[in-house]
Design a protein that fits this description.
Elements (H helix, E strand, L loop, with lengths): L7 E6 L4 H14 L3 E5 L6 H6 L5 H5 L2 E3 L2 H5 L4 E5 L10 E2 L1 H10 L4 E5 L16 E3 L11 H14 L18 H17 L8 H15 L3 H22 L1
Parallel strand pairs: 1-2, 1-6, 2-3, 4-6, 4-7, 5-7
Helix pairs in contact: 1-6, 5-6, 7-8, 7-9
Length: 242
């Protein structure tokens, strides 16, 4: 039987300090989070990480190494990004309690993104996120990466009653993020062909579509149907232009 947080993947994007990876791994092991993913960690020292993660070496040993955020979240059905900086684009912003209740009430595969220690997540890193998680702070807004992961998974665990197990859901029927990204790319190609994107920001339009696709809660069959429609429209537009 799966644990309450088994469907969660903690994704560390370009983490710079192996010690922080170790602290994150320790929190993941202590609270039963499903998986750790590392996106392009520079000069990663696994021994240093293991030293900071007593009794949690298995989390580091089993970590999923990825070249990009898209690879890390491809099989997720929900992507939430943590950030403390203001953004030029609009994402729904939630506090830890709201996110915890959402994840507990709808236990689909969920990826939670954490950025590098010096700069946080870039706007490009946020491209597949459908919402932001923001921890309220006082006058000083500076949370260590390891602390941020620990606080996040603790909040997630607190939303479950002791002994809770992941509820049965129709997660297998839902379209994962990787497939939703394919749909958005196809739609962007069509919009470009129609000149809709002229004078508009591609990232803003793309992120709007990603959020809409996430809220639509598309099933695999529905997404396949939409992909077929969009491909047909694109073919027709190209044929007409010739």
């Amino acid at each position: 039987m799966k644990g309450a947080l088994d469907h969660i993947t903690v994704v560390l994007v370009r983490p710079q300090q192996a010690g922080n990876i170790g602290v994150a791994a320790r929190a993941i092991a202590n609270l039963g989070v499903g998986r750790l993913a590392l996106v392009a960690p520079p000069n990663f020292d696994p021994e240093r990480a293991r030293w900071m993660a007593p009794k949690s070496h298995h989390v580091i040993n089993d970590a999923h190494y990825c070249e990009s955020v898209a690879d890390a979240v491809a099989h997720a059905q929900r992507v939430i990004a943590t950030t403390a900086r203001p953004r030029s684009r609009e994402w729904p912003v939630h506090g830890p309690l709201e996110v915890s209740r959402l994840v507990a009430s709808d236990p689909v595969p969920t990826a939670i993104l954490f950025g590098p220690e010096d700069s946080g997540l870039s706007n490009e890193d946020l491209g597949l996120a459908e919402a932001l998680l923001h921890f309220p702070t006082g006058k000083v807004s500076s949370i260590n990466l390891g602390q941020a992961v620990t606080a996040t998974v603790t909040a997630l665990a607190s939303a479950h009653q002791p002994g809770d197990e992941t509820l049965e859901s129709d997660a297998d029927e839902r379209a994962p993020v990787g497939r939703r990204e394919d749909l958005v790319k196809r739609v962007m190609e069509v919009l470009d062909t129609t000149e809709y994107l002229q004078g508009r920001s591609d990232p803003v339009v793309s992120n709007t579509l990603i959020r809409l696709a996430a809220r639509a809660d598309l099933r695999q069959e529905e997404l396949n149907n939409l992909l077929g429609m969009v491909k047909q429209v694109r073919w027709w537009l190209k044929a007409r232009s010739r």
